[in-house]
Amino acid sequence: FHFIQVLKPLDVKTKFYNAETDEVFLEAQIQNITTSPMFMEKVSLEPSMMYNVAELNTVDTAGKSESTFGARTYLQPMDTRQYLYCLKPKQEFAEKAGVIKGVTVIGKLDIVWKTNLGERGRLQTSQLQRMAPGYGDVRLSLETIPDTVNLEEPFDITCKITNCSERTMDLVLEMCNTNSIHWCGVSGRQLGKLHPSSSLHLALTLLSSVQGLQSVSGLRLTDTFLKRTYEYDDIAQVCVVSSEVKQ
User: Fold this and answer.
1) Which among 146, 126, 119, 148 has a CA at the least distance from the CA of 9?
2) Same domain flag for 160 and 220
3) Contact 224, 172 (CB under 8 A)
């Protein structure tokens, strides 16, 4: 018997980025580790049953969708190319915070290429897994926030509060001012009971007394059942300018 060592033609590395909106961004780095150029015929992501996928590897030019790698997608020897995908939870799963919280299987990559002699090759990865984000018992995320606001002028944000635990909570919201961020309204507001995997939207008003890039901080949620307080700082950032500059 003669043993022939077969070297793999591609090296595939993946990175995951968990967004606050339950979206997952996948960066796939594909390197040609052969000694010849290859034509990348297809690089796609087959998502798991809980996600829809959008490829972020094209740009719109004059109403036409073109590849970010150009018309000829050749990968030279030892060159690396990065592919980006955005996965969004399907509607029936997005409303179940506990389900999405524990999902680790994202999907698998399907890669098809041709060598310079016209031979076709295919590589399909095993199921890609991410590290599931830990949100704790209560998750607070921002739904809307302006990019730029005027100095010492109130602006509105919308928060989403999700009960990620398996028990009902009775929540109270406290707003603590910082050196630059000042909350408008009454602190100690009763939000009522929030059942497991349920969410509520909350509109809040605040202003900044300092110019520049400021962090939105100072929100506190207290569960009156367990007398436990959850602190939320550096939730987002907003650019504060004088009214003359913005106009």
Assistant:
1) 119
2) yes
3) yes
